[in-house]
Amino acid sequence: MNVPLGRIFGTEIRAHWTWIPILAFIAVVFSLDLTAGGGSDWPPSLAWAASIAMAALVFVSVTAHELAHVAVARRNGMEGPVVVIQLLGGTFVAGVSPKTPGQEFRVAAAGPAVTLVITAVLAAIAAILTVGTGDINKAPQGLQAVEFVAVMLGVFNAFLAFVNLIPGYPLDGARIVHALEWRRTGQEAAATAAAVRVGRYVGLLLMAVGTLTMVFWDLFGGLGLVVAGWLIVGSSRLLDRRTVLQGLVAGLLAGDATDSEQARVPPQLTLDVFAGEYLGERLGTAALVERGSELVGLVGTAQIRRIPRRSWPNTRTEQAMVPIANVPRISGETGLWTALEMLERSGLDALLLVPAGADQALVTRRSAARLIHQRAEERQRQMLVTGQGKRGRFGGF
Known about the structure:
Elements: E1 2-8, E2 11-16, H1 19-34, H2 44-75, E3 82-85, H3 91-95, H4 101-133, H5 141-164, H6 172-185, H7 188-216, H8 219-248, E4 263-265, H9 271-279, E5 286-291, E6 294-300, H10 301-304, H11 317-320, E7 322-323, E8 329-331, H12 336-346, E9 350-354, E10 362-364, H13 365-395
Parallel strand pairs: 2-3, 4-5, 8-9
Antiparallel strand pairs: 1-2, 5-6, 6-7, 9-10
Helix pairs in contact: 1-2, 2-4, 2-5, 4-5, 4-6, 6-7, 7-8
């Protein structure tokens, strides 16, 4: 679940729900540590104010990191429809499609650059307060609170910049490695392979260091490194598979993946009947909702999954559908990879092909998967034929 915050630079900004426990944890832990019971003579009101301010500024710091990506992408002619603010970011950069290595480098480096600038500003504020007061521990408690927040926030931003520069997907460092290798070789596919390889090695290194840390130094710190390395290795594998998939759909158009079995259902049809008669095992597909001759919406697997099964007999398709005006549209001449990216971003099971007409066509997840499977089988047959030819030429006797 994501919380909408508004639009900036033409991009919708959302906050991931995990910020709620994260910010609450920061505020509570630091407030307890700063009260008299935690070894400080600060009054509870000041401790809570400093802790809540620090929690809010942590969120502002991460948001500034992501907005730097958004601003530079927009300046370079790229726009993402949405950015989800998460603790370690990475979502927006992975969603834009740069045309040149320079564009990718600038977008990827923008976030860490802004974070490092924030770190430097906070370090300067902390240094001025420390030097200016002579002894910060004897300064007014209000200044102590400001210095404490500046130091802690500066440490957090330094950590944020460092982590995002690690060359493993989905972090910014992997995109920077990709951009540099793309520029060096001139081939984006080779750059992706290099970035995947580097990410895998970095992930394995973090897991090894984490294991040693767990054994000889700190259990929880080492466990954190192992988990981080495991996530990076997993992300690298996913990117590798994504690259293979992108190769399979090369040259295919959205119009090639039209669903030939698409259905049209009335708005009063209940979901139990719809699921049983029109979906069945056809996961990833959808149907147009039609009132008379008017198309009013789209309903599919994604919609009915959000409704408890016990409510299906009493829920009509018109109550679960996405209004037809909100269904993304795409030209049949658009590349299939672009269509797949639109499907992923929309969270729906289908796109409308344009121009619209009486026989409105859909590109569904299921029809796209079927086409890709056919392409994979064709490639496999070609490889087998090529292999047989070589054996017949060199190994037949």
